[in-house]
Amino acid sequence: MVRLKNFRGAPFWTGNRSLNVIISHFGSTLQSLDLYSLTNVESHMVQDILCRLPLLESFSAKYLDEKDVIEDPRPWVCLRLIKLHVSIWESSTKQPSSSPSTATETTATTLTLTEEAIDSTLACTTALEVLDDEANPRGIIERLGTLRRIQHFDLEARVSLDPIRKRREALHGEVRDLQLGLKNGLDKLKGWRNLRILALTGTNQIITEEDALWMKEHWEHLETITGKLNSLCLATNNARRKILEGRDGGACVFGPEGVYVV
Fold it and tell me: SUPFAM superfamilies, alphabetically (predicted)?
């Protein structure tokens, strides 16, 4: 029996059916999955992977839309993730809609929903709504909070994503990059005690002083940040950096936009 542990999709490789076959046959053994070069891997497929591959330690894909997460009642099972590289978008609406864009049920040849799967998902969603937020992590931040082994979190928003973002906005309304602030649920990530690298390049963050102080207190192993902590004001950005650079017991290294410092 072949036990595939690592898979990296080449830029010229296409085919939803082929991807699903790989996941169906090797999902129980895959530890590293790099799909970033594949332009046809959509958000709902990324969500499906996070819900199906329990041994994943490293995963890269282009983007994940919160809309596709909150419409899917399944929990993430990839609790061994150490490195996650995906641009995450907050949807303009936080409530599940009737659009069947997420793949909550799959077969060996497709990642699209069947009518039976839609009925099952709606029934499951209704049942889960009675649970509290901790037992039922529905949003992006809550799901991320379950990844307690994470060491490298890369949200980098690259220019190559612009056409995909525009198409997504045309269909579902405005989307923006995930904001890492307390008002957006940053405290749900207090279990990220092993976080070492945080890549925020191009994500237009607006980190407050309170947010930076929280990161300083809870992410004690954080070593490297790329990108701006405040994209609106250079002076404010520098002030936030000083909070983390002056952390007791260790200091963050800040890389320039688009450059990793390890």
Answer: RNI-like (SSF52047)
pTM: 0.76
Residue 176: which H helix or E strand, with range? strand 175-177
Give the Cβ contact number of residue 109 at 10 Å. Answer: 12
Residues of the chain with pLDDT under 70: 1-2, 10-16, 91-138, 159-160, 247-251, 255-262
C-alpha to C-alpha distance for 158 and 143, rounded to whole angstroms: 23
Q: Give tens-digit pLDDT for 57-72.
A: 999 999 998 989 999 9
C-alpha angle 135-139-16 in degrees, rounded to nearest 5? 115
For residue 223, CA distances in Å to 192, 195, 215, 262 come to 13, 8, 12, 8
Is CATH 3.80.10 what the domain over 6-255 is classified as, yes or no?
Answer: yes
